[in-house]
């Protein structure tokens, strides 16, 4: 064994002294199995490419380029929302460059990680490529988790709204006749939002025009409408209600119960009303995603956030890839690497 090792060292030294054949760094990569495995991936990364930089800048608000957490979240969400997972052919490892992945509009975990890392690197944000036994993702280096959280929440709430449709926002528009000395109600039964519903509160935006003055009340429940029609004292939101007006509009925010609105015609003649209502139910980020955390690692005493580009539409910076086993983070520029704990 010692003799074999000596022969390998002599052979390596011989190669090193062959002019133009291989440089010193490549020789060490050849010896180091971690770098030897990582090299096909990191060699595909682009760090100073005008086209990739232009592509990344196109996706961002130019006035917020100095906000690292905004940049990371925006580019990450662009990848998970717009790129498809495309597996390699069976038994074949195909590694795509960032531009090839953009052209295909998809790739496997290595391809998407290479693309995301390259986009961030072209904007001056340091990254690491993480390799496991059967998976790859990347890390964004030096991230402030407190600054990151609001962007994560906003991105996921937009996704919830996109997927939920009428569950999140309900609109009522109508023109109708309200008879004299009559009241009309539209809304829910006033049930308090249950934890399982994953809502925090309801916002109500309203506007109406009436041919005669009418009273408009925002109430927490249908029960208050019943009290009102029986001429009993009832509860309503004073900041969102008005009496005897022909035109009225506004917003009633942060209603903790699913209530509704009352229109009352106190005149002795009928009136025609044009009414617009929009109920917006605010999902609770902390209820919907209470089992998720921001996954981070410390490298050189600095916080690095997991970027899992195959997490799907509900992925976010810090999404726990839930990968077990050995995880190695490689600096694609210096080729330093660290075992993540």
List keywords for this structure.
disordered N terminus; C8orf32 fold; single chain; six-stranded antiparallel beta sheet; alpha+beta; 341 residues; 32% helix
CATH top level label of the largest domain = Alpha Beta
In total, the number of domains comes to 3
How many H/I helical runs? Answer: 10
Helix content: 25-40%
Structural class assignment? alpha+beta
* Strand and helix order: HHHHHEHEHEEHEEEHEEEHEEEE
The second-level CATH architecture of the largest domain is: Roll
Low-confidence stretches: 1-5, 7-24
CATH topology of the largest domain: C8orf32 fold
Straight-line distance between termini? 34 Å
Largest sheet: 6 strands, antiparallel
Walk me through this protein's architecture.
The protein is of the alpha+beta class and 341 residues long. The strands form 3 sheets. Strands 11-12-4-3-13-14 form a 6-stranded antiparallel sheet, with helices on one face. The protein is built from 10 helices and 14 strands. Helix 2 crosses helix 3 and helix 5 packs antiparallel against helix 7 (109-121). 32% of the residues lie in helices and 30% in strands. The longest helix is centred in the middle third of the chain and has 20 residues, at 145-164. It folds into 3 domains: 1-31, no CATH class; 36-158 and 292-339, C8orf32 fold (Roll), CATH 3.10.620.30; 180-269, no CATH class. Residues 1-5 and 7-24 have low confidence and may be disordered.
């Amino acid at each position: 064994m010692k003799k074999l090792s000596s022969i390998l060292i002599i052979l390596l030294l011989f190669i090193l002294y062959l002019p133009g054949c291989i440089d010193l760094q490549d020789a060490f990569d050849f010896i180091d199995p971690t770098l030897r495995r990582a090299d096909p991936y990191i060699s595909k990364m682009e760090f100073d490419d005008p086209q990739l930089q232009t592509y990344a800048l196109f996706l961002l608000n130019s006035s917020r380029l100095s906000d690292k957490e905004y940049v990371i979240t925006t580019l990450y969400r662009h990848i998970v929302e717009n790129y498809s997972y495309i597996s390699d052919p069976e038994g074949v490892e195909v590694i795509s460059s960032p531009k090839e992945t953009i052209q295909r509009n998809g790739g496997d975990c290595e391809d998407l990680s290479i693309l995301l890392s390259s986009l961030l690197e072209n904007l001056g944000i340091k990254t690491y490529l993480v390799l496991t036994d059967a998976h790859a993702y990347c890390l964004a280096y030096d991230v402030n988790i407190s600054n990151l959280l609001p962007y994560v929440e906003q991105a996921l709430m937009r996704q919830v709204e996109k997927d939920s449709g009428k569950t999140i926002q309900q609109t009522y528009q109508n023109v109708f006749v309200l008879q004299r000395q009559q009241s009309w109600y539209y809304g829910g039964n006033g049930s308090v939002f249950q934890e399982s519903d994953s809502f925090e509160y309801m916002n109500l935006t309203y506007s109406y025009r009436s041919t005669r003055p009418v009273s408009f009340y925002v109430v927490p429940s249908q029960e208050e409408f019943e009290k009102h029609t029986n001429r009993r004292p009832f509860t309503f939101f004073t900041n969102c209600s008005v009496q005897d007006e022909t035109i009225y509009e506004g917003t009633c925010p942060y209603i903790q119960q699913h209530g509704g609105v009352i229109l009352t015609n106190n005149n002795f003649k009928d009136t025609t009303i044009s009414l617009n209502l929009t109920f917006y139910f605010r999902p609770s980020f902390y209820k919907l995603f209470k089992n998720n955390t921001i996954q981070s690692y410390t490298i050189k005493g600095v916080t690095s956030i997991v970027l899992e580009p195959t997490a799907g539409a509900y992925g976010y910076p810090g999404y726990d890839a839930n990968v077990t086993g050995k995880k190695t983070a490689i600096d694609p520029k210096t080729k330093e690497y660290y075992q993540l704990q």
